[in-house]
Amino acid sequence: QVQLVESGGGLVHTGGSLRLSCAASGRTFSTYIMGWFRQAPGKEREIVAHISWSGSASYYADSVKGRFTISRDSAKNTVYLQMNSLKPEDTAVYYCNARSLINRTDYWGQGTQVTVSS
Asked: Which of 43, 66, 92, 100 has the greatest CB tally within 10 Å of its CB?
C-alpha cells in the first residue's frame, strides 16, 4: 500500500520561504512520477510541479517557475518542494502525488496547509 506523508506547511509572510516534504513508502518508486498539487478555497486542484524519480525530468506550472524547486532524495524516498518568494496567491492546501507510469494510478497524501499573509 502506497503511503505519502506531507510535512512542512505553515504560515509565512509575503516573500518568505517554506520547504515541503513528502515521505513515500510502500512501493519502489522508480516507475512513478512524483508531484505536488495545490487546492485553494473554492478552486480546483492544480498541478504545481512534478519530477521523475530519476530526477532527470521536471515540470513547473507557469505561476511558480523561478520561485519553486522540486527535488527528490531516492535514498530517503522523499520528495521536496522548496518554495521561495511566496505570494498570498500561493495560499492553498498542498498535496503530494505519486502517479504510476505503468497504469496511471494516482496516490495522494493527506495535504498540508500553506498560508501566505500579505
From this structure: 92
Model confidence over 17-33: pLDDT tens digits? Answer: 999 999 999 988 889 99
What DSSP assignment string belongs to the chain?
--EEEEE--EEEETT--EEEEEEEESS-GGGEEEEEEEE-TTS--EEEEEEETTSS-EEE-TTTTTTEEEEEEGGGTEEEEEE-S--GGG-EEEEEEEEETTT--EEE---EEEEEE-
Question: Residue 88 corresponds to which amino acid?
Answer: P
Cell digits for 82? 522548496
